[in-house]
């Protein structure tokens, strides 16, 4: 019998997908359940090798479907829940906010109810630094766990709402929870609507890369496998009720990121096309990860080693992203950017 049963929601997406593979390999004595609705952002081809493993299971379900989720939890009696499932793209939240509230807020509440009623012993809610809002360009300012929540986009507002529900289920019902708030991830299986994989895939096809505004906005980048290790640590060692920020001090302007990719691939910088800025575009994110470091975590990738590994992965795995950028993605791209 498996030592622990763990439910990973959103395990067909980018970070959840990497986390599922990380856990199946690291803990052969755990039973790892991947629950996912398989929206446009979810795909199971990334797990084709896992199908051979006897500690991996897939469940297709909507986290906001109360009846299905309650029944599943009552039947399976999970020990742990690690909750990634969400609508995750800021631009999509600007054009269509409603599904963000349904999935990110209502879906989280359904999972909290099911976890409480079935006796889950740890619920890790995977959140984002975007709930803190934005920082100015003073390099000595950082988000800490005490920074007030001040989300600016419909996406980050929906994530902040779910964070507050998770906190409330701990305070009210004593549900054993942790909340992690990570900076921007990058790495294998990153969906090419997001800046880094969008740039790599378009530059490889000699297509223009849309950079919002003047390209000076700053993000703090973390390799997805360092994020997975952080969540694993919080799951097993996190103090109940606590929030942990996750980040590796890798601040870069968007223009620096795009130019690094273009130069690594030996392509011309005139592929950059400055386009209309994102509405409410947050200026800068930067994480102070001291609390998590004190728990025993430190990142293994610098931005330089991580981006080199990631670019190589996209070169070696065209089969994965080429299937994704064909079809419906083309319609999304034209609607979003109005460029070919
Ligand atoms: P993603 O968009 O790549 O994957 C989301 C997954 O959730 C997909 O597989 C999708 O099918 C699934 N999903 C969506 N709605 C669902 C529903 N109603 N029921 C069940 N499954 C559903 O997202 P990601 O970038 O991997 O982000 C995962 C989590 O991490 C999110 O909660 C996000 O807020 C958080 N996060 C992301 C980043 C980042 O840089 N990408 C950073 C910090 C935190
Ligand atoms: O900070 C964590 C967050 O990082 C996560 O919570 C989100 O789920 C994740 O999508 C990401 O949000 P961002 O909005 O920061 O990521 P995105 O890749 O969309 O954009 C990164 C930066 O690049 C941002 O400043 C906007 C800019 N950008 C993005 C796109 C898609 C462009 O200039 N051009 C683009 O085409």
UniProtKB/TrEMBL annotation:
Matching InterPro entries: dTDP_Gluc_deHydtase (IPR005888), NAD(P)-bd_dom (IPR016040), NAD(P)-bd_dom_sf (IPR036291)
Gene3D superfamilies recorded: NAD(P)-binding Rossmann-like Domain, UDP-galactose 4-epimerase, domain 1
Signal peptide start and end residues: none
An annotated GO BP: nucleotide-sugar metabolic process
EC number in record: 4.2.1.46
Reaction(s) this enzyme catalyzes, per UniProt: dTDP-alpha-D-glucose = dTDP-4-dehydro-6-deoxy-alpha-D-glucose + H2O
UniProt keyword terms in alphabetical order: Lyase, NAD
Keyword Lyase belongs to the record: yes
Domain NAD(P)-binding, residue spans: 7-310
Domain of life: Bacteria
GO molecular function term, any single one: dTDP-glucose 4,6-dehydratase activity
Cofactors (names): NAD(+)
Pfam families hit by this protein: GDP_Man_Dehyd
Family designation: Belongs to the NAD(P)-dependent epimerase/dehydratase family. dTDP-glucose dehydratase subfamily.
Name under which the protein is recorded: dTDP-glucose 4,6-dehydratase
């Amino acid at each position: 019998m498996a030592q622990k049963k763990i439910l990973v929601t959103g395990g067909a997406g980018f970070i959840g997908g990497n986390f599922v593979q990380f856990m199946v390999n690291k803990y052969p004595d755990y039973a790892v359940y991947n629950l996912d609705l398989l929206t446009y952002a979810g795909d199971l081809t990334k797990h084709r090798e896992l199908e051979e493993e006897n500690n991996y299971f897939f469940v297709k379900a909507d986290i906001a479907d109360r009846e299905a989720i309650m029944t599943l939890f009552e039947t399976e009696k999970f020990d742990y829940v690690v909750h990634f499932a969400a609508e995750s793209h800021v631009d999509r939240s600007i054009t269509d906010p409603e599904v963000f509230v349904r999935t990110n807020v209502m879906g989280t509440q359904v999972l909290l109810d099911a976890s409480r009623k079935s006796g889950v012993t740890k619920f890790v809610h995977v959140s984002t630094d975007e709930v803190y809002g934005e920082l100015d360009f003073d390099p000595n300012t950082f988000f800490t766990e005490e920074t007030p929540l001040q989300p600016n986009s419909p996406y980050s507002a929906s994530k902040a709402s779910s964070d507050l529900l998770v906190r409330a289920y701990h305070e009210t019902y004593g549900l054993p929870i942790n909340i992690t708030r990570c900076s921007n991830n990058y790495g294998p299986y990153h969906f090419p609507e997001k800046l880094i994989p969008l740039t790599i895939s378009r530059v490889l096809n000699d297509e223009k890369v849309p950079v919002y505004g003047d390209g000076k906005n700053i993000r703090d980048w973390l390799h997805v496998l360092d994020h997975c290790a952080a969540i694993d640590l919080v799951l097993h060692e996190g103090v109940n009720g606590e929030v942990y920020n996750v980040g590796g001090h890798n601040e870069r302007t968007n223009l620096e990121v795009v130019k690094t990719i273009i130069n690594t691939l030996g392509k011309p910088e005139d592929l950059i096309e400055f386009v209309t800025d994102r509405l409410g575009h947050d200026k800068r994110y930067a994480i102070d990860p001291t609390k998590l470091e004190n728990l025993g975590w430190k990142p293994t990738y610098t931005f330089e080693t991580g981006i080199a590994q990631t670019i190589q992965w996209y070169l070696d795995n065209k089969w994965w992203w080429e299937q994704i950028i064909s079809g419906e993605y083309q319609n999304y791209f034209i609607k979003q950017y109005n460029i070919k």
